[in-house]
C-alpha cells in the first residue's frame, strides 16, 4: 500500500491505519494518528455510518448533498477517509480483510468477539498480516465477569470511581465530568500503546493485540486519588473545587464573580498573603505550611474569602500575576476561543470538505518542531472516499465497485 500523504514531514507519514471504530474512544485515538500523518481509512456501515453523525444538534448542514453531520462527529474524525463497507456481508468482510493485509494498524471497538463471525478478529487478521498492530477498544476488556457488557463513558465514570470524587458532597446527586473524559482517556492510552507497538513492529517485525478498555483507563486515571487510597487506606470523597492535598487550591468568590487560586507551595502562599492579608498572616502557625493549612482548611478559607471580598476579578488576577501566584478566571467555551493565548497557539483549525464546505475543528495540542501535525482533510461526509480508496488500494475497477454497490456491500 503506497501512501497518498502529501505531507511527508509528519511523524507517521507512510503508516496505514484501518479504523473500524465509532463514537469517541477509538476515533479519538485514530484522529491522533491521522494528525501525526498516518493514512486513516474510516470504515463505516453504509446504513448511517458512525453513530455520532446524528448526535446533535448542532449539525453541519450540507445543502448540496442533503446530509447533516453532528458537531460531535466532527470533533474526532479529521484527516480520515470515509469508506462505506457492510462487513456483515461476505464480500464486504473480504474487502476489509484485503485492506487489513496491507495495513500497519487496525483499531476496532466492537463487542468482545463480535468480529470473529466475520473473520475479522485478531487471530483471523493475523493470518493475513502477522505484522499488524490490532487495537481492540472495549468497555471492560477482553476477559473477566464484565467483558460481555457494552461500555459507555458515563457508566465508566461511575464504575471507575471518578464520580465519587466529583461534585459537592452536600448537593446530593453525584456528578460526571462535563466532557466524556473516560472515552478520551482511553483514546489517549490507545494511541500511546499503538505507537509503542508500532515501534516494536518496526524493530522486530512482530505485531500484537492491544486490549484497551475504558474501565482500566479510568482506574489508571485516578492518579493521586487512587494512590492516596492504596497508601493511606482512606476512601477519597467529593470535595467540590477543593484539592485533597494542597491548600489553598480552589475557587474563591470576589466582588464581581469567582476566580481560581492555586498556591502550590508555601512560597506562593506567602506571596499571596503579602498582597491581600494583614502583616504576619502567612506566619500564623495554623497556616505556615501546607500540612497545617490542610488541617485548618475551613478557618483559612473563611479568612481568604473575607480578604478577597473587596477585590474585583480583574483586580485580583492582575495582583496575583504580578506577585507570581497562579490564578485565573473561569471561562465559558466562548471565552476560551476568544482568549489571546488560545488564539496564539492556533487551537482553531478550519478545514474544507471536497465540496468546499468549511468545518471548524480543534487543533492537535502539541507543537512539534521537526514533524508538526498536519491538517489535510476535513471530517468526511459518509462514504465520501469509498470508490477512490478501493480503486487506489485494491485496484477495483469502476464496474466492480458499481456491482458491489448494487449488491448492498458498498455505500
Short descriptors:
36% helix, alpha/beta, Rossmann fold, 411 residues, EC 2.8.3.15, elongated, 6-stranded parallel sheet, CoA-Trfase_III_dom3_sf, 3-stranded antiparallel sheet, disordered N terminus, CoA-Trfase_fam_III, succinyl-CoA:(R)-benzylsuccinate CoA-transferase activity, formyl-coa transferase, domain 3
Task: Explain what this protein looks like in three dimensions.
It is a single chain. This protein is an alpha/beta fold and 411 residues long. The protein has two domains: 16-221 and 344-406, Rossmann fold, CATH 3.40.50.10540; 249-332, formyl-coa transferase, domain 3, CATH 3.30.1540. Helices cover 36% and strands 16% of the residues. The strands form four sheets. The protein has a six-stranded parallel beta sheet with strand order 5-2-1-6-7-8, sandwiched between helices. Strand 3 and strand 4 form a beta hairpin. Helix 1 crosses helix 6. The protein is elongated. The relative contact order is 0.14. GO terms for molecular function: succinyl-CoA:(R)-benzylsuccinate CoA-transferase activity. Keywords: Transferase. InterPro entries: CoA-transferase_III_domain, CoA-Trfase_fam_III, CoA-Trfase_III_dom3_sf, CoA-Trfase_III_dom_1_sf. This is Succinyl-CoA:(R)-benzylsuccinate CoA-transferase subunit BbsF.
- In CATH, the homologous superfamily of the largest domain goes by the name Crotonobetainyl-coa:carnitine coa-transferase, domain 1
Count of individual beta strands: 13
- The parts where pLDDT drops under 50 for at least 5 residues are 1-5
The main β sheet shows up as: 6 strands, parallel
Amino acid at each position: 500500500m503506497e501512501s497518498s500523504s502529501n505531507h511527508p514531514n509528519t511523524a507517521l507519514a507512510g503508516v496505514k491505519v484501518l479504523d473500524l471504530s465509532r463514537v469517541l474512544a477509538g476515533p479519538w485515538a485514530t484522529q491522533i494518528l491521522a494528525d501525526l500523518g498516518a493514512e486513516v481509512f474510516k470504515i463505516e456501515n453504509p446504513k448511517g455510518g458512525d453513530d455520532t453523525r446524528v448526535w446533535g444538534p448542532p449539525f453541519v448542514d450540507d445543502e448540496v448533498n442533503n446530509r447533516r453531520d453532528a458537531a460531535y462527529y466532527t470533533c474526532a474524525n479529521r484527516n480520515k477517509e470515509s469508506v462505506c463497507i457492510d462487513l456483515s456481508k461476505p464480500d464486504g468482510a473480504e474487502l476489509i480483510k484485503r485492506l487489513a493485509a496491507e495495513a500497519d494498524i487496525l483499531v476496532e471497538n466492537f463487542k468482545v468477539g463480535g468480529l470473529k463471525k466475520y473473520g475479522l478478529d485478531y487471530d483471523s487478521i493475523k493470518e493475513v498480516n502477522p505484522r499488524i498492530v490490532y487495537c481492540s477498544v472495549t468497555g471492560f476488556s477482553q476477559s473477566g465477569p464484565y467483558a460481555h457488557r457494552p461500555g459507555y463513558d458515563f457508566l465508566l465514570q461511575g464504575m471507575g470511581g471518578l464520580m465519587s470524587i466529583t461534585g459537592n458532597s452536600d448537593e446530593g446527586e453525584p456528578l460526571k465530568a462535563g466532557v466524556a473524559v473516560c472515552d478520551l482517556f482511553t483514546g489517549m492510552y490507545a494511541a500511546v500503546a499503538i505507537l509503542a507497538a508500532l515501534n516494536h513492529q518496526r524493530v522486530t517485525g512482530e505485531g500484537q493485540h492491544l486490549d484497551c478498555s475504558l474501565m482500566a483507563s479510568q482506574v489508571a486515571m485516578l492518579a493521586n486519588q487512587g494512590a492516596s487510597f492504596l497508601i493511606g487506606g482512606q476512601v477519597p470523597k467529593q470535595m467540590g473545587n477543593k484539592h485533597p492535598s494542597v491548600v489553598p487550591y480552589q475557587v474563591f468568590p470576589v466582588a464581581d464573580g469567582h476566580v481560581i487560586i492555586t498556591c502550590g507551595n508555601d512560597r506562593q502562599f506567602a506571596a499571596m498573603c503579602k498582597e491581600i492579608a494583614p502583616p504576619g498572616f502567612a506566619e500564623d502557625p495554623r497556616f505556615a505550611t501546607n500540612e497545617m493549612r490542610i488541617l485548618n482548611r475551613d478557618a483559612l478559607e473563611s479568612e481568604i474569602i473575607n480578604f478577597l471580598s473587596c477585590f474585583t476579578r480583574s483586580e485580583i488576577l492582575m495582583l496575583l500575576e504580578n506577585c507570581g501566584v497562579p490564578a485565573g478566571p473561569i471561562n465559558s467555551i466562548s471565552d476560551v476561543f476568544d482568549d489571546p493565548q488560545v488564539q496564539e497557539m492556533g487551537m482553531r483549525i478550519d478545514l474544507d470538505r471536497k465540496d468546499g464546505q468549511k468545518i471548524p475543528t480543534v487543533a492537535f495540542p502539541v507543537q512539534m518542531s521537526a514533524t508538526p501535525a498536519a491538517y489535510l482533510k476535513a471530517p468526511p461526509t459518509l462514504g465520501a472516499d469509498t470508490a477512490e480508496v478501493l480503486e487506489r488500494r485494491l485496484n477495483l475497477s469502476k464496474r466492480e465497485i458499481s456491482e458491489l454497490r448494487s449488491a448492498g456491500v458498498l455505500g
